[in-house]
Write a structure and sequence with these properties.
The protein has about 150 residues and is α+β, with helices and mostly antiparallel strands. The protein is about 30% helix and about 15% strand. The protein has a three-stranded antiparallel sheet. The chain has a three-stranded mixed sheet with strand order 5-4-6, with no helix packed on it. α1 packs across α2 and α3 packs across α4 (about 60-70). The longest helix has 13 residues, at about 60-70. It starts with 9 loop residues before the first helix and ends in a 6-residue tail after the last strand.
């Protein structure tokens, strides 16, 4: 099941910002609305490609993404390719077990909300001391790159 893109309203974005202790700026509202409609995690470049032509500053958009992630409104994903990707934090990110698929050719990151990943020790092995797993990325080739 894929997430249906539903852009939040300006009012809902403002309420979320205030609840997170942030000022409601035009840039923050635009970023929240853009990410709420995205079907996958998006990079700063993806956000800038859409919002810069609408009059937003590229560096302001970057600061907004970082501030919104720091405030807990966005999930910040590091797929190991030196480009953070962001998505609106929802129920699937609350527990930290929301996996993503990363294409090793094109770099596209896709949500896997219906995939459950369990990490378990093999029978008879000592319990692994991994600590808390915060992100799970499955890597391979997407359909477009096969």
């Amino acid at each position: 099941m894929r997430r249906t893109p539903i852009a939040i309203t300006v009012q809902d974005a403002r309420l979320a910002l205030r609840a997170a202790g942030l000022r409601s700026t035009t840039s923050r509202v635009a970023v929240l609305q853009h990410l709420s409609a995205a079907r996958k995690p998006v990079s700063h470049a993806d956000v800038a490609e859409v919002l810069v032509p609408q009059g937003f500053d590229k560096s302001t958009l970057y600061r907004c993404l970082v501030e919104l992630a720091d405030a807990g409104l966005l999930a910040r994903l590091d797929a190991g390719d030196h480009a953070w990707r962001f998505e609106l934090r929802g129920e699937e990110h609350a527990s930290g077990d929301h996996p993503h698929f990363v294409c090793v050719d094109c770099g596209q990151v896709t949500c896997l909300p219906d995939v459950e990943v369990k990490i378990a020790s093999t029978k008879g092995a000592k319990a692994a001391s991994l600590g808390d797993v915060t992100e799970v990325f499955l890597k391979g080739h997407c359909r477009d790159c096969q």
